[in-house]
Every structure is written in C-alpha cells, then in structure tokens.
Write a structure and sequence with these properties.
The structure holds two protein chains of two kinds.
Chain A lengths: L3 H11 L3 E8 L7 E8 L7 H11 L1 H6 L2 E7 L1 H8 L1
Parallel strand pairs in A: 2-3
Antiparallel strand pairs in A: 1-2
Chain B lengths: L2 E4 L2 H8 L7 E7 L4 H15 L6 E7 L4 H6 L7 E6 L2 E7 L3 H17 L7 H7 L5 H12 L4 E5 L1 E2 L2 E2 L2 H12 L5 E4 L4 H11 L6 E4 L2 E4 L1 H10 L3 H7 L1
Parallel strand pairs in B: 1-3, 2-3, 6-9
Antiparallel strand pairs in B: 2-4, 4-5, 6-10, 7-8, 10-11
Classes of the chains: A alpha+beta, B alpha/beta.
C-alpha cells in the first residue's frame, strides 16, 4: 500500500529542480486517493498537459495501483503568488 | 427489431456517436397525437425492414417525451426526419410523404457509397479484435476520439457516473452547455487499456476536443480558471 512518503520520495528523486512537494492521502491512510502538489522550475514554459505528463511519468507504476490521483504543477513564481 | 425507440438522451448520444461508426442513421421524430405520424410510423417501420436498408440505423424519437433531443434539432413539426452520418446532418425532411422520404434515403445511401466509406461494420470489428495489431487498435481509437467534436471518456454514463471525477467533469460540461459524446470505459476493458496508451494518460475521465486530448478533470478545471470560455475557444479551432 502506498503512503504519502512513498510518493514524495519518488517525485523528489525523479523530477529535477524540486522546490516543494506536498502529497496528501485523501483516503485517510488507505493509500487509494492522493492529491499532489509539485513546485519546480522544470515546469517553466510547459503547458498543463506537459506538466502533468512529467509527473505521471515519474509516478507511472504508483498511479497504476491507486484509484484516484490529482496533481497540480507550479513553477516557483506561480507558487509564490499562491502562497503569499 | 428494425426501428429502435429512443427513450433517453444517453442512449441517443451513444447510438449517434460512439456506436454509430460510419453508418447512415435516420432519426424519425413523431408524437402520439399527430395524425400523419400514425401512418408514417408504419411506413417507416416497413422501410426499416427492407433488406436493402440493413446497414442503415433507424431510430424513432417521441418528440414530446424527449424534448431535449427534439430541441437539439429544432424540431418544429412532426413527422420530421433527420439523416446523419459521422455526426453530420446530411438531409432533413418535414412531412409524411413516404416517396419523398425513400428518395432522400436512397440519395444519402448513394452519397455515402460514393465517398468510399470502407470502414468495417461494427460486427466485423469485434471479430477481428483479437488479431489486431497496435496500429489497427490506434486507428480504431482515432475514429472513436473523433466521434464527436467533444468526446468524454468516462466511468459510467452522464446520467449514472460511476466515479466522482467523472461525475464532476460531466457537471462542468453541462454547466457550460457543451454538447458532447461519451464512452463508458467500464463497458470495454480493451478500449480502457489501449486508450491509456493512446492518450499517454493513466486515468479517466479523459476529455478530447476535435480529436485532440485535453486532459483530465484537474487540467480542465485549471484551463477554465485561466479562460472561462475555454470550451468555446477550443472547439472553434
């Protein structure tokens, strides 16, 4: 069964230039439904589809085993606008 | 049963988009109270039974109980016939003249033949499925994603979604009054798996506009945040 840490590790080691990764298990520990936020400048210049595909590629095996997966990808600038 | 009675919009969408293939489809709008419809209904049924029309799909729609479908075609009088193929209206006919209808039907059949539509009939497709190469599957998928300008691949149907994300995306499309065709990927595991490769996307729902993959629920939501007319702008391209 997957945990938030599993996904966090996989993303941090596969996607370059990580600024922040936030993984939330929406299924309260059942490892079935994850909400993921990835902040990295690698997303600069990429449209939403390309960004998501990057994350999908990194989590290819994991996604196959879980039921629901939702992901938001931001560059550092975009993230700064949201968080401040 | 040569004439298929439509009883709900999902069925209608499915028969005219995803299950349609290259077939000529005739829509017959009628009401129970209009006199000419009584006789025309019998004629319609007889025509649908003719062997020469075996490749044509004959649908029958009560305009009163399916008013949303009737509105889609702006039906103002019955009996009314609409002949469509590959999501395009070929001809329309108002009135109860059997001869006129038969002529129109023949005209459309000839038109389709001449276009050289050589796609295999749906029954043949399933027989060949096991021996299909990836190219053949992808060719089929290409047709499927183009079945309608906006195609939603979802779990369940719009009236009975089997997953929260699919339900949300249907809600969004309806909220923005977008007409869309759908395919229930729970009904066909082969399409479900091959579409993941085809779209290079691991999950459902998946939205296609004009044959191009747009994304899943998240991306569509974000796209709408950036542009409230996202659907209109993308469909127009």
């Amino acid at each position: 069964m997957l945990t938030e840490e599993d996904l966090r590790n996989k993303i941090s080691t596969t996607i370059p230039d990580i600024y922040n990764v936030i993984v939330t298990d929406l299924s309260y520990g059942c490892g079935q439904s994850f909400d993921v936020v990835v902040v990295s400048n690698i997303f600069q210049g990429k449209n939403k589809l390309q960004r998501s595909r990057l994350v999908n590629g990194a989590l290819k095996e994991e996604i196959q085993t879980i039921h629901a997966f939702s992901c938001k990808c931001y560059t550092e600038d975009e993230w700064a606008k949201i968080v401040i | 049963m040569a004439v298929h009675q439509i009883t709900n919009q999902d069925e209608f969408t499915r028969l005219t988009t995803t299950d349609a293939g290259d077939k000529l489809i005739v829509l017959y709008f009628h009401t129970i109270w209009a006199e000419p419809c009584k006789q025309m209904g019998e004629v319609y049924s007889a025509i649908s039974d003719e062997p020469s029309n075996k490749d044509v799909s004959f649908l029958s729609i009560d305009a009163d109980s399916n008013s949303e479908i009737a509105e889609l075609f702006e039906i103002s009088a019955v009996p009314y016939f609409v002949l469509i193929q590959k999501g395009t209206i070929l001809k329309e006919l108002s009135g109860a003249d059997p001869k006129e209808f038969i002529n129109l039907l023949d005209e459309c059949k000839k038109f389709i033949e001449n276009k050289g539509a050589n796609a295999p009939k749906p029954e043949e497709d399933t027989e060949e499925a096991e021996g299909e190469s990836e190219e053949e599957v992808f060719a089929r998928l290409t047709k499927l994603v183009n079945a309608a300008p906006v195609m939603l691949f979802m779990k369940g149907t719009p009236s009975e979604p089997k997953c929260g994300f699919s339900r949300q995306l249907v809600g969004i499309l309806r909220e923005h009054q977008v007409r869309f065709g759908f395919f229930d990927i729970l009904r066909d595991d082969a399409i479900r798996q091959s579409l993941k490769k085809f779209s290079d996307w691991p999950t459902f729902p998946q939205l296609y506009i004009n044959g191009e993959f747009q994304g899943g629920l998240d991306i569509i939501k974000e796209s709408l945040e950036d542009d409230t007319e996202f659907f209109q702008h993308t469909i127009q391209q």
